[in-house]
Every structure is written in structure tokens, then in C-alpha cells.
Amino acid sequence: MKDILEILEKDARTTPEELARMTGMTAQAVRKEIKKLEKDGVILKYKTILNKEVIREEHSDVRALIEVRVTPKKNVGFDYLAERIYQFPEVSSCYLMSGTYDLLLVVEGKDIHTVSRFVAEKLAPMENVRGTVTHFILKKYKEDGDILKQPKRDKRPAISL
After folding, report:
1. Whole-prediction pTM value?
2. Which CATH architecture group holds 54-139?
3. DSSP β-ladder status, 103-109 and 142-143
4. What tens digit of pLDDT does each residue of 68-113 get?
């Protein structure tokens, strides 16, 4: 099972036949194991990682990392606040952290002002939110273990004769 998960995590397009060759199992056993992992909620979904820098349009979305300090709610701790926060559509990821802040959010919006409004109007005024620090992502070099290289463009003008 662990081998199958490690391989699929690196490349979800690996076929059961390829997995069988790599793990020494039969393709039928691999399919059965994958179905069980999906049913048990171990495999939640399969997704594609896009290099948005390559397809970046003039008005593409911006992403920010937001550190949030909160006061945990009595008898429910951080989970109650985290659940309220991650329900906002602007929040794409939410993590409980150790250190100087409690939650780390990944927030997306159509521009910097949209993200700023989210923080000022929705997040910061929430009960038990003690403070926020926003970091806008300027460029991604690596995400989820994948290096996001852009094709090099020749900046020299073409010469025709």
C-alpha cells in the first residue's frame, strides 16, 4: 500500500499496470487496493499541478500566505475557528501551526485589493482573531515537490535577410 501511495503521489497518472510492475503486485490487486484507498478516504482526489507562471494572463489571480493569531475557543480549541475560516471561498488552504502564529492560510483573489478586503472585512474582524500578517506570493519556484521551470525565451530580436 505504501509503495502505491508514494508512486501515485508523485504521478497520479501512473497506470495500474505500471504500478503492478513497480510493486511486484498484479494489476488486478493494484486496482483493488486503489479502490479501497479511495473508499477509505486515504486518496481524496487526483489533481493536476499547473505552472501558472507559464499561462499567466494580464489579470491573473494573486495568492497570499496569511499568518493568523487566534484565541482558541473554550472546549473546542482551534478546530472551531479553523473551520469557520476555511469555509470562506477565498481560502484555498488552512493549517494549524506551531510558533508565533496559530493558523497559516493560503488565500487567492483576483488582485491584491480583493485579498486585502478579505483580510480587513472578513478575517480580521472575526471574534477570537487577534492579529494577521499577510505575505503576497510574488513568484513560485517549487510547489508540492515539483520545480516550476519556465521555458527560456531568447530575448534577442530575430534577424531576417
Report:
1. 0.71
2. 2-Layer Sandwich (3.30)
3. unpaired
4. 999 998 888 999 999 999 999 999 999 999 999 999 999 999 999 9
